[in-house]
Amino acid sequence: MTIDILMPYYGDPGQLQEAVKSVLAQRDPDWRLVVLDDCYPHWEAEPWVTGIDDPRVVFERNPRNLGVSGSFDRSIDLAAADYLVIMGCDDRMLPDYIGTVRRAIERFDRPEFVQPGVRIIDEHGAASHPLVDRVKGWVRPRVPAGGALLGGEPVMTTLLRGDWSYFPSICWRRDVLAKHRFSPEYEITLDLVLKTDILLEGGRLALLPEVVFEYRRHAASASSYTAKDGSRFDEERAFYRSAEPRLRAKGWPRAARAARIRLTSRLNALSKLPGALLSRDGSAIRTLARYAFAR
């Protein structure tokens, strides 16, 4: 069973090369990689990618800049395999990623998505332990050595208390993504929106303890920039407010309560306030305070 890896590109050339090389280093050879250039203006990736002597590596270019959700949606259309990963162009797979995920797909009878263990690295590729990822580790469900199949209100509640998953490391069933797509309304929370839709329809998550992916956390990420000025929290508030009535209608009161309280998201906003105060950024201060303390 081939697993497709879609890699939208709009970033650092060196980190893209690291990401691609990490795919080439997979011990399980049954994969296909599509590097998708989102009309990135600063470096032409095509010569380097097409120069790789491996028929499993394909280069595609968007007809115009589609942005995050547009590139993710096109990734679904470019996938041919039953399962796909939409991998960050600055992240790295460890050599057993494909094999580990494939075994989980077989063991858990084709789950809607698979979340393996993740290691955090910084912009230089060194191991990193930021507060946000330590919190993710605290709220992430504990599973046995072979992993576990999760679904329903319990896992939905944990995700809404604090989204402990890492989107670029998740392997998705293609037919599920094709049904739900990515909402153009969201940019930062679009993966949590997707997971909510899938779980509300009875989808299952295979959660694995094996660390087989490296997620790069650095200040240049979209989420870091928007968190600084507070705009990401406007988007998060809109998502949580829209999710709460859907969860109540489903008969999931604990999940609805988690959406209403959004505890770790509020704490994240509070953690940004000192920086906004020091920089005397009035707009960010108002946005962060409103999100942290208001309904």
TrEMBL record:
Q: What keywords does the record list, in alphabetical order?
A: Transferase
Q: Which Pfam families match?
A: Glycos_transf_2
Q: Which GO terms describe its molecular function?
A: hexosyltransferase activity
The question of whether Transferase is a record keyword is answered with yes
What InterPro entries does this protein map onto?
A: Glyco_trans_2-like, Nucleotide-diphossugar_trans
Specify the Glycosyltransferase 2-like domain's residue ranges. 5-122
* Superkingdom of source: Bacteria
Q: What name appears for this protein in its UniProt entry?
A: Glycosyl transferase family 2
State the organism named in the record: Leucobacter massiliensis
